[in-house]
Amino acid sequence: MHPVERQRSELRIPSTGITLLEGPGYFGKDGRVLAQHWTSILLSRGHAVHWIDGGHRFDPSGFFPSMRSLDCPIEDGLRRLYIGRGFTLHQLHALIQRIRHEVALTQASMIVVDGMLAMFLDEQIKRFEARSILRHCMASLEEVGRNCPIVLLDGKTTSPLHQQLKHTMRPYVRHRLQGTWGDREKTTLRLTGSTGVYQVTMKQSSHPIDQQQLSHFTSIVPAERLAAQAVALPTNQMEREPTILPAQQVDGSNQHRCAEMDHPGVHIPVQEQHVATD
Q: What does the mean pLDDT of the chain come to?
């Protein structure tokens, strides 16, 4: 037997396809910080991102630390963040169905669906109907994901129906990251995927102007709130820029070239993997 080799792997933004990010909390709320940072990276580089809120929990202040660390003007960055909120399963379904047309206008570089399965567990929705709508949603996202990476946030299983819905999603998911807490204080999030195990250090960074900025972006003036959340889509088709997420293979493998994470508020050290070779 040869000595154990050490391999290095880094957590990066997926280039294409659907990535299921499962946080340890309910419907992926603890893993949202990773999706928020990926979003901030793209916004800081002038790209648009669509964020579909399926869990009634969108909070613009969660983007402030990442955008500030990336020297991205918050107002300018949030103008390229397109928010869609579904308050019922059928509204969420409609948002996902029309995302293909919206991305054609915005030329977005990533789509995030926060709390993907939360609405599907509504007791008023029949199980057969829920699974049927989910398959329809996943098929639409899979089509869009051929050219644009899609991140779905979900959490630990809460019921047998939840488990069935996850099973329905699996054929459409290309990448999967499962999150667990690495310590009792919940400061280290361990993400396990097919390419390795990663650690995300959750650093709480308080900033005195965060609350003021949040109040500004959630102003009771409808026009200000609409501009801050960037709900309205542009009427004219935007000129497409070269994407920073090419779906290119590296060294003949199926691994895609991606953008790396680099953020002082979310520290992801290199994970050493031990592989025994003959």
A: 74
